[in-house]
Fold these 2 entries.
Entry 1:
Amino acid sequence: MNPSIRIPLSPALPRRAAAAAMAVLALALQPAWSQQPYPARPVKIVVGYSAGGAVDIVARTMAQSLSAGLGQPFVVDNKPGAGTNIAVKAVIDAAPDGHTLLMAANALAANMALYQPVPFDAEKDLVAVSLIGRVPVVIAAGANAPYSSIAQLVAAAKAKPGSIAFATPGNGSTPHLAAELFARAAGISLTHVPYRGGAQAVTDVAGGQVPLLAMNALEVKPQVASGKLKVLAVLSAQRSPIFPDAPTIAESGFKGFEASVWYALMAPAQTPAAIVDRLHAEVQKALRSPEVMERMSSVGGEVLPGSRAAMVSLLRSERQRYEKLVREAGIKPD
């Protein structure tokens, strides 16, 4: 308590006056940032992946819209490493004033199952601002790979077990888990090559260093368009509008392996509700704008406007789903 502030609490002090005095005291003791208009300075959006990847692209798309809507720069801060845990913990430890946010993906839920001891509790240590959107996962191969379909891939893998490597944006990522479970169902053994984000993984597969790739559609689109990658299957219920000739995984003979990468904006726990609500409203406005909708659809994704409660529910259900997947597939962090 500020020693310069004195409030007499004598019995003679009227009850209403005492209440008013305590309210003044509470206001005086609030942190300075809570009394300033939001945002009071540039806002940092932390991304747990390297620049150029899907999460980075989504974060920069939202940063541009939020900068225009809230009148302060929103800048992306890439902090790759430890399966995104470095970025998550940086946001958890940040001041809960709305000036440090996290652009999260499925790893936020998966890492609570993948890492022991549990590195954080996303439901307690963070607060959901908004779900942003989702992009389907694809299985792709280099242009010179000797297989152009899931059936050919399975045959090649069975002929030489363990000889085919597949790249992903990280250990425990949605593409990794989806590919591992597909391999188990197909009765094949693939060798996982995890990367710290998708950009370098895509580059290496396109260059022939690794033959196979499990990645979200957003990150492979440019290389597919240039002929350096070929999509063997899309892990969505319907064919992707940007890869209309690529069959779904169900059409390829394996049902139940639909997988998408989702993106969400999070803030540190204890961030004032007024700030979270304002951010949520601005995100919803951005997601309904033609510019953001077109940007997401052009790379094979879709925006997902909705309530904060819907994001909380998704995070909880995804955590439970990943606990089951990690246990069944026996996946361990690198």
Entry 2:
Amino acid sequence: MGSTGLAPLSVWNGKLYSNGWRRSAESGTLVVTDKASGERLGEIGHACADDVTSAALIARESQRAWAAQPGPHRGDIVRKASQLVLEHADEIAAQIVRETGSIRPKGRAETALTAREILEAATLASQPTGFITASEAPGRRSIARRVPVGVVGIITPWNSPFLLAARAIAPALATGNAVLLKPDPQSPVCGGVFFAQLFEAAGLPPGLLHVLPGGADIGDALVKDKHVEMISFTGSTRVGRAIGASAGGLLKRVSLELGGNNAFIVLDDADIEAAASAGAWGSFFHQGQICFTAGRHLVQERIAELYVQALVRHAQALKVGDPAKSEVHLGPLINERQAANVDRVIAATTARGAQLATGGTRQGLFFVPTVLTAVAPGMAAFDEEIFGPVAPVTTFRDDEEAVRLANHTEYGLAASILSADLTRAQRIADQLRCGIIHINDQTILHEVYGPIGGHGSSGNGYSYSTLTNMEQFTEWQWVTSRERIATYPF
């Protein structure tokens, strides 16, 4: 980053944002890197447990005045932040590319989607917040209303850090809450720094947004802090289980959107070339590092050979390289640990009898798009969320077996069904256990208007959307009133 722009290095380098930019007293810094080249982009302050404690206390005190503000006033500030995203879109997208290994179109799309998420969240501040309810007592006025939760702790991942943070930050603020944000340490600028500067420039009062980068210890402190009333977490199922267990013991509200191993079902009446195009996008976009990735291609036996041939052609046509230097289709995986895990999954799966149709190799963090065939339940590539550019193909005989295979997973995030017969596809959709289903499209879709959340090991039933955000970030309060004090026969 240069010395000018939305987040000049001199402002955030070595610091964290909590009641202004300041240095953490204890924990030092995290290095911010370009994932493709390894270039050092700067350092961000590393929060410690004491930083979480002080930030939560400040947020709790600040939140009361914020909730008392007229809703349209809060909405204006959130709306201004959306406008600022658009004004700085090129800079934000470029940072997403460098910090996460995203290709340029993904960086631009994530920025545009984020602006829309924030804009739509602003409308929550001017929506009705309750009802006048019936009452059995003459003269009693009874109101049921939604009130802010209070202080919301938001823990976000590295793969789409700008978008996945915004979809929680913006509605939480619009509905009158304060926010403690813990961005992933691998993407602390586009997942954290930018929000501090955007909302500060939009006029958000001090003390309402704190950005606390760090690892699992900071997440744990956030979950356990007595002033944090809710946790919103997007990330792995393993970490989500731990957060859910800890928050549940504290009787704390927790929203979990977790991993997925999503079925991409291709029926024998589907357009094979179109299905392969959608399947390649679903498995290889952002190097397969998205929870909505098409993790299992379930293809009807009659067309399986032709489908695999088409999918291999698509895979082999994709260019892999540094997205900051040239136009490529795939950038690097996020780190060596993840790349090694993809190696492990491929090796374990082929050792059990699956065939490597193309790919399976890498240079450093740059992984070649890979297609595996003859994949079956019990193999790593069928059972696990891979988070790499791998398309495992499994065949099925009939619709009943397709449903059985699609549901043969602990996850329940997304699925796609491709068919020329919409009635047939809908009949299959009605039997799938997952939170999101797309007919004649791929699995990686994101719109603020449709509820995004998973079932089973993919989440705990909460969803992010214009339909559900009011429910998610507020809670019911019942208020009654009478002109005179009621008397009772005691």
